[in-house]
Design brief:
Elements (H helix, E strand, L loop, with lengths): L12 E8 L4 E2 L8 H10 L8 H7 L8 E5 L17 E3 L2 H8 L6 E13 L3 E15 L4 E5 L2 E8 L4 E8 L7 E5 L2 E6 L3 E5 L12 E2 L2 H12 L10 H11 L18
């Protein structure tokens, strides 16, 4: 068992840079609606809305509220396990410690779920991967929100010096990675880059990990911890058809828009 609880005990400043690209595209063009469409949606809202079309365009294309922010090394203790762990173990992250990082993007950030896993360990270093689900309330009066699919991140620490070698938190750069809504209208879109990254010590070029699992194995552990349906043994459609014929049973098909194992659906 490995005890990392007090590794980050120093109070060294860690500058973190934020990147947040504009929404590149959406299915229904909610983020870049025409003035006519905006006024039509605005008129259908139950309560009067004090917002112009130009303010609407800015609302769905924000940048980070703090492009650069200094944290203390101790702020990153929220990502450490609350007790002794082995490589591959998963633990929950406390919202109170996570939200200050998310609010470097936007003050309306709320956190839904967060998990971390010890991916690798050596005599000098430790590598922790984490996954966070969050929601950003862009404007309360019109219930405008943006919900990223997920944030994934790395924390590599030097166990000897109690310092951070690397810390990142980012939205996976795949198509359809955010949901958004306002005026009871909903859309799904793509943000090319939404990331926080530390400007602290340079990560060592190579680390001889004594015990480690792959990032793919960590992702499977997170999915199993967050979504019970991932425990289902899925059958390829070709095999299902043959089995249905053999058993003389019908197939109940469900067509999904989006994916089930994150929040972008």
């Amino acid at each position: 068992m490995i005890d990392l609880r007090n590794v980050l005990s120093t109070s060294v400043d860690v500058p973190v840079q934020a990147h947040w690209d504009p929404i590149e595209n959406t299915t229904h063009n909610l983020h870049w609606a025409t003035e006519e469409k905006f006024n039509r949606s605005k008129a259908q809202w139950q309560e009067p809305v004090d917002m112009t079309w130009k303010e609407w365009l800015v609302l769905f294309n924000p940048g980070p509220v703090q492009p650069l922010k200094n944290y203390s090394t101790t702020d990153f203790q929220v990502f450490l396990p609350p007790s002794t762990v082995n490589v591959g173990d998963i633990w929950n992250l406390e919202p109170e410690g996570i939200l200050p990082f998310l609010r470097q993007f936007h003050p309306g950030a709320t956190q839904k779920a967060a998990k971390a896993c010890l991916r690798a360990i050596s005599s000098e270093y430790a590598d922790i991967i984490f996954r966070i689900h969050a929601r950003f309330r862009l404007n309360a009066s019109i219930d405008a929100y943006l919900r990223p699919a997920q944030f994934t991140g790395h924390l590599i620490i030097n166990r000897d010096t109690g310092t951070i070698c690397q810390w990142t938190l980012s939205l996976p750069p795949r198509n359809s990675n955010v949901d958004m809504g306002a005026f009871r209208s909903f859309d799904i879109g793509f943000v090319p880059r939404m990331e926080l990254c530390s400007l602290s010590e340079t990560q060592p070029e190579s680390i001889a990990w004594e015990t480690a699992i792959t990032e793919e194995e960590v992702a499977k552990k997170f999915e199993g911890s967050l979504y019970k349906f991932t425990e289902i043994e899925w059958t390829p459609i070709e095999e299902a058809v043959e089995r249905a014929k053999a058993l003389n049973r019908p197939i109940h098909a469900v067509l999904l828009f989006g994916v089930l194992d994150d929040e972008s659906c």
